[in-house]
Amino acid sequence: MSSEAQAQVIANGSSLINTDFAGDDAPCPVFPNVVGEPNSDDSKIPTISSVSPVLSINQLDDLFDFANLDRSVELASQLAVQHPKSLYLFMQRYTHFNGYAGSLVARLASSIGLSRHLFNSSSNPVVDEADRGLEIAAKVFAATIDEHSDRGAKFVPHRTLAQATLRAVGDYASLTVDERNTFSMLPDWMLEILDKTVQGYQGVPGNVIELIRAIGFHAASEVLAHREYSIIDKVVRHDNRNLGFDAYLRQINGKVEVEQGQFSPWYWIVIHGKHQGVGVEAEHFQLALEALDLVAKYRTESDREIQKLALQGFSEFVAIQQKLFQEISQECSELLISNPVKQL
Question: How many CB atoms lie under 10 A from the CB of residue 290?
Fold first, then answer.
């Protein structure tokens, strides 16, 4: 039994997963009318057979036009700051969506780790000395360490910090418990997005195609999150300095009390990304690219084949991200119709 077959048996019992790579004619997920979707024509995907790394930020920007993707985030943020309730709606949706990040990154790292014999050093003939899957998993897992235990905030999970942010925005909007719980009822579009995110992120143990797609999905999540948090920080705290929520934070001396202790309500934003600065997401993105480079090192397929699969996953997350902010913008617009804009 080959090392790949051994990995499949471990991950899936007696049922083996077909790990053959898709050919050039294999379909790429299509998301019509999504800004930034790469051209389905394979000739538009950059060829890097003689170039390292497998993916780079410049290649991805050429394909997806990050500045264009940013517009949906900025529009939603600008609508959100028009009224305390719309800001709460925005933050409820955003904190809820991102609350799954740590667990999904852990799932992906686990899926890779359980498939360690799919990734082998060609220079070592001893099977038990050759597997390198955990090296790849470690690059992914680094992100979930930060998500579950923030070194700069009493080692609490980022979910706790997000809850502190949401509580402060709810207090700013003077929302009652019942009003906050009403906002927590998720619409169908959000449930659909969450389901697609779980399916795209976690990978499938023993299935190298799905694992590479998932690493691409993860890379998109990290680089887009870096840009999202930076834009939110810009719109809320810099474009509206001393106004609205920024003024409220100054009024409460930048602290909010939750069950786990006292935290800065804005720390959750800036630890991930900040205006004219960087947060942990930029580092996590770089590690995701390094994970893909290790995949190329420890697989026999060409960089081109690996790149193609990673871009499929990347494209899938781009579609999800754009849908998320387009729907948030729509909800904020509808809320503002029934709640006249409050003077900041």
Answer: 18
CATH topology of domain 53-336: Heme Oxygenase; Chain A (1.20.910)
pLDDT in tens, 33-71: 333 344 444 444 444 444 468 999 999 999 999 999 999
Which is more confident, 277 or 54? 54
Side-chain-side CA neighbours of residue 118 (13 Å)? 31
Amino acid residing at 144: T
Name which of 240, 193, 228 is nearest 97 in CA terms.
193
β-bridge mates for residue 61, sequence order: none
SS3 content of the chain, % helix, strand, coil (to 5): 65, 0, 35
Residue ranges per structural domain of the chain: 53-336
What pLDDT sits at residue 155? 57
331: exposed, middle or buried (C-beta count within 10 Å: 0-12, 13-18, 19+)? Answer: buried
CA gap 131, 257 in Å, rounded: 47
| Residue 21 banded pLDDT, cuts 50, 70, 90 | very low
Distance in angstroms (rounded) separating the CA atoms of residues 244 and 87: 10
Q: What H or E segment, with its residue span, contains residue 78?
A: helix 66-80
| Closest to 207 measured CA to CA, from 51, 7, 54 | 7
- C-alpha 144/C-alpha 104 separation (Å) is 8
Q: What is the C-alpha separation between 250 and 296, in angstroms, rounded?
A: 49
Which tokens belong to 87?
Answer: 């800001």
- CA-based nearest residue to 268, from 167, 151, 164, 180: 164
CA nearest neighbour of 69 among 115, 34, 120: 34
Contact by Cβ (8 Å): 327, 190? yes
The answer to whether 207 touches 17, Cβ cutoff 8 Å, is yes
